[in-house]
Structure formats: C-alpha cells, structure tokens
C-alpha cells in the first residue's frame, strides 16, 4: 500500500527545475533508497513530502492528505537531514527532549541505548559537537521517533564506519520489530544496497529508475568477452555502459537477454552501485545528446 | 490548532527555559548591580525627595527582543525540522510571549516595591518605579510594565522571520521602509502644522493606554505579520 505519493510534482526555483514532473510512491513498511547525484533533486522532493516546501505544481499526498501545515500527518513523519541546525542555546539533551515531545511513538529506552552506543555527550552544547556527533543526534531522533514515515537525508556525514554500521544494524533490527516506511537518501550506495528493498533514482530532477531492488538486480548484467560475441548478445537491448580493450568488450546491459549464446562470454551480476551510476551516466549522456538539460546538473557532482 | 498542541510546542520552545526566560532576568540583575555601583561612585547629591532616575530598565526589554529574534532564526527551523507546523509554532510563540510579558511585569512590579522599601536601593535611585509609568493599582501597573514586552517581543519575531527568509538584505529593506514611513509621517505632521497636537497626544494619553493599550494593538499586528511571513518560510 502506498503511504506517500507524488504525482507530476515540479518545483521551480527561478529558471531551474529542481524537481521536474516527478511521480513516485513510497510503500507501507518498506525501506526505500532515494538515490542520485548532488543537486539531483532528492532533498527538494523530501522537503515537499514533509510539508517544508510547497510544489510549484503537482500533487503530494502523505497518508492521503496534503502534508503542508498538516499537524496530524506531520506527527507521523520524521525527516532527518544532514543540514539540520539546532538552536545555539541547546545542549544535545535538549534536542532529544524536544523530539520526545513531538513524536507520539517515541521510545525513550531505545533513545537512551542509542546515546550510549553513539557516545553522544548529552551535556555538550550543540555548537561544540563535532560533525559526527551532530549526525548522531539526528540518527538517534530518527530511530527513536519510530515515525510511520521516516526519512534520512544523508544522515551520517562525519560518522565513522563503525557508527554507520551501528546505525544500519539498529535500523534493520528495529524495522523488523516495528515495521515502518523508511527512506534512505545517500551516496554510499554499496553500504545500503543490502538494506533497501526499493530503489528510486532521481537525476536532474527526473526519475530515471524506480523499481524493487530484486527486479533491478535480476534485470541487469555485465557481459564480457570477444567484441563480436558481446555485441551479438546485447543486440537490441539497452547498453548502459561499454568498455573496449583490444578485441575484448565489456558491457552493462539492462533487460537481460534470454536464450542467447553465452558460451564464449562471461556473465556477471551487477552491483546496485554500478547499476545506479551507469544508469545515471546513460541518462545524462542522452540528455546532453538531445540538448535537453535543464542546466541544473553539474558535471562535477561526486558520488563519494 | 488545539491548546494542547500549542502548549506542547511552547514546551519545545522552553526546553531550555533557563536560557530563554532566565537570560533577560540575569541581565536585569547585572544592570541593576552596575547602576548601584555607578551611583555609589558618583554620589550625586540629589535634592531631597527627588530620586535619581536611570533608564536601565530598558535593558530587559532589549534582551527580550533579541531572544525572540532567535526564536525565529534558530528555534523555528529546528521545530519545523521535527515536524511542527508553522501555525503551531507561531501560535506557541505568542503563548510564550504573553506569559513571559505578564511574569516579567509582575517581577518588575515587585522590584519597584523593593526599590521603594529600600529607599531606592539605599541611594535614592529610581530604576523600576519610574514616574511616567506609575499606576494606582497592581493590575494596571503590571500591564503597563508588560505592554512594551509584548510590542518588542513580537517585533523581534517578525524581524527574525524576515531575516530567516530574506537574510540581512530583507532586514535592511524592512528597516529602511519603516524609516521612510516614519520620515514621511513627520513630514506630513510638519507640513500640516500638527506638532502641537502630537505633543498633546503624548502628554495627554493615559499611561495605561500609552504603555499597555497601544503596544498590545501594535503587537497584534506584528503577530499577524509574523504568521503571514512564516507561511512560505522553509526551515
């Protein structure tokens, strides 16, 4: 069942379309990955579906209602973002206390355990917290709030690998006990590949991929071998990426061709990261080819 | 927007009440202490029966204004980040401000009593019991002290949300626009030869109306402006 839906949503800032005629759904009790390059429109989409921004056109529905200024809907939505600022007069504890007042499903025991685990100094002024400690404030709020719709937008800037793993572990364990709709927006695709059940990729404000992880993985393969054989194999299918070396060729094909000769070829599964990156590049190249870019995409955007 | 919801959001704004409500009072106490020290040092021989007046009371009003600028520049984006609506936030800020103004009004009234009882802090110093603010009964006296808090706090909220939406430029434009409006009014008054009426207005308006009535009216307008400006504000 869909708990969040965007239909033909566009958000324009001046001449730029940060989000351009986008439609997708978030399904109940599922972990979604919202992926894309810097400036692709992920955060804008999330701000619209949490009522923080209003779309220029199109329709946003959360639990069937418009989330803008809708206290009833918003109490069931928790949006954790990397850019969250906290009042200077706060110590870390105040942020958690405030969140505890707002979210009806808040679990204080869980929050206390997470504070322990992330070693968050509760009495430190937020201005004195490191980047990683600030991120853990957000992560703790996002997990302990147990909001039916929880969105994490790059929640772990500055968190070390151990802390990130702790976040994933807690997320999965708590999700198993208290299923909810979760959105993870991140550049670290490899790290979340095993967690996310549904993948939505946005590029230059448009959706370029929206399917279950399972489908995506089964649809694309990397094929390598003699150029001629590879070309025969991939003929008529979408080649997202191609590398040539001597007489050998390696391609990433989407839509796995069936019943074709693979005797001289090596066929391998594709990692989600590879698929997402190559699809985005393919989409970018197609746009550049047709001169249809909206000027928003920046060639320097990094995946790191 | 139920009252329970407002109280909940007000509690978020007061999650660090010691800073929000305590800071202006702390500043007030420090300013009082500083004034006592200064007046001890200069020892002006004031004529008997007349107190030396200090305008230091204005400090708590200014600090309160500044804290409410921060209510919008810092607390507002945080609250929206944890799923509070703009409507509830501005409503709750109004609730906090009205309560704060009344509590501070009572505190200043108590300080005025103390001032009287101690012979002007032993120095014939008048910081709280100012002649132009005197009222004959407790309720109107507290309202006279509270009125300017309402006015300045809501002015702080509006300035804060203007800054949050349009940055320094917005505040400059707003300030210059208000300045131009003031200059225009003064030019009008001058050209029409209305100055005498203006002076009479200030001299004749009863203290209660001047310090509680009109400020509350202007505060209500500022509250509406704050709400309108917050509608399209993004955290």
Automatic annotation (TrEMBL), chain A:
SMART domains: AAA. Residues 4-229 form the ABC transporter domain. InterPro entries: AAA+_ATPase (IPR003593), ABC_transporter-like_ATP-bd (IPR003439), P-loop_NTPase (IPR027417). Keywords: ATP-binding, Nucleotide-binding. One of its GO terms (molecular function) is ATP binding. Coiled coil: none annotated. This is ABC-2 type transport system ATP-binding protein. It comes from Prauserella sediminis. The lineage of its organism: Bacteria, Bacillati, Actinomycetota, Actinomycetes, Pseudonocardiales.
TrEMBL record, chain B:
Coiled coil: none annotated. The chain crosses the membrane at residues 20-40, 52-69, 89-114, 142-162, 169-188, 208-229. Keywords: Membrane, Transmembrane, Transmembrane helix. It comes from the Bacteria. This is ABC transporter permease.
């Amino acid at each position: 069942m869909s708990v969040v839906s965007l239909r033909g949503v566009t958000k324009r800032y001046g001449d730029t379309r940060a989000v351009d005629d986008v439609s997708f759904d978030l399904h109940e009790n599922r972990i979604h990955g919202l992926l894309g390059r810097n400036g692709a429109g992920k955060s804008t989409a999330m701000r619209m579906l949490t009522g923080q921004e209003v779309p220029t056109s199109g329709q946003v529905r959360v639990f069937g209602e418009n989330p803008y200024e809708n206290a009833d809907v918003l109490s069931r939505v928790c949006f954790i973002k990397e850019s969250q600022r906290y009042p200077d007069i706060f110590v870390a504890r105040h942020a958690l206390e405030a969140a505890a007042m707002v979210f009806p499903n808040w679990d204080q025991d869980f929050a206390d355990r997470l504070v322990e685990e992330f070693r968050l100094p509760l009495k430190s002024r937020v201005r004195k917290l490191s980047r990683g400690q600030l991120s853990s404030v957000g992560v703790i709020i996002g997990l302990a709030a147990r909001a039916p719709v929880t969105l994490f937008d790059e929640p772990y800037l500055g968190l070390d690998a151990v802390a990130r793993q702790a976040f994933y572990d807690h997320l999965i364990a708590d999700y198993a006990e208290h299923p909810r709709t979760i959105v993870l927006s991140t550049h670290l695709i490899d790290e979340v590949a095993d967690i996310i059940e549904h993948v939505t990729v946005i590029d230059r404000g448009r959706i370029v991929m929206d399917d279950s992880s399972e489908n995506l993985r089964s649809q694309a393969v990397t094929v390598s071998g003699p150029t001629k054989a590879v070309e025969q194999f991939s003929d008529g299918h979408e080649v997202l990426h191609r590398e040539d070396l001597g007489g050998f060729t390696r391609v990433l094909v989407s839509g796995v061709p069936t019943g074709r000769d693979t005797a001289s070829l090596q066929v391998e599964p594709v990692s989600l990261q590879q698929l997402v990156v190559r699809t985005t590049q393919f989409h970018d190249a197609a746009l550049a080819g047709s001169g249809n870019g909206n000027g928003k995409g920046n060639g320097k955007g990094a995946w790191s | 927007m139920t009252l329970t919801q407002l109280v909940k959001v007000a509690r978020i704004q007061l999650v660090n009440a010691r800073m929000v409500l305590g800071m202006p009072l702390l500043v007030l106490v420090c300013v009082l202490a500083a004034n006592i020290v200064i007046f001890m040092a200069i020892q002006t021989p004031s004529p008997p029966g007349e107190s030396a007046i200090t305008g230091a009371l204005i400090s708590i009003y200014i600090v309160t204004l500044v804290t409410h600028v921060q209510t919008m520049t810092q607390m507002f984006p945080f609250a929206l980040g944890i799923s509070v609506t703009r409507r509830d936030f501005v409503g709750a800020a109004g609730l906090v401000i009205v309560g704060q103004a009344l509590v501070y009004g009572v505190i200043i009234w108590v300080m005025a009593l103390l001032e009287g009882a101690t012979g002007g802090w032993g120095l014939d110093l008048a910081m709280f019991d100012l002649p132009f603010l005197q009222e004959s009964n407790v309720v109107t006296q507290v309202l006279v002290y509270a009125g300017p808090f309402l006015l300045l706090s809501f002015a702080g909220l509006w300035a804060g949300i203007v800054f949050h939406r349009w940055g320094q430029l917005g505040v400059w434009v707003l300030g210059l626009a208000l300045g131009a409006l003031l200059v225009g009014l003064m030019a009008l008054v001058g050209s029409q030869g209305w100055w005498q009426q203006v002076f009479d207005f200030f001299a004749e308006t009863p203290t209660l109306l001047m310090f509680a009535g009109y400020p509350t009216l202007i505060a209500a307008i500022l509250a509406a402006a704050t709400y309108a400006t917050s509608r399209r504000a993004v955290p």
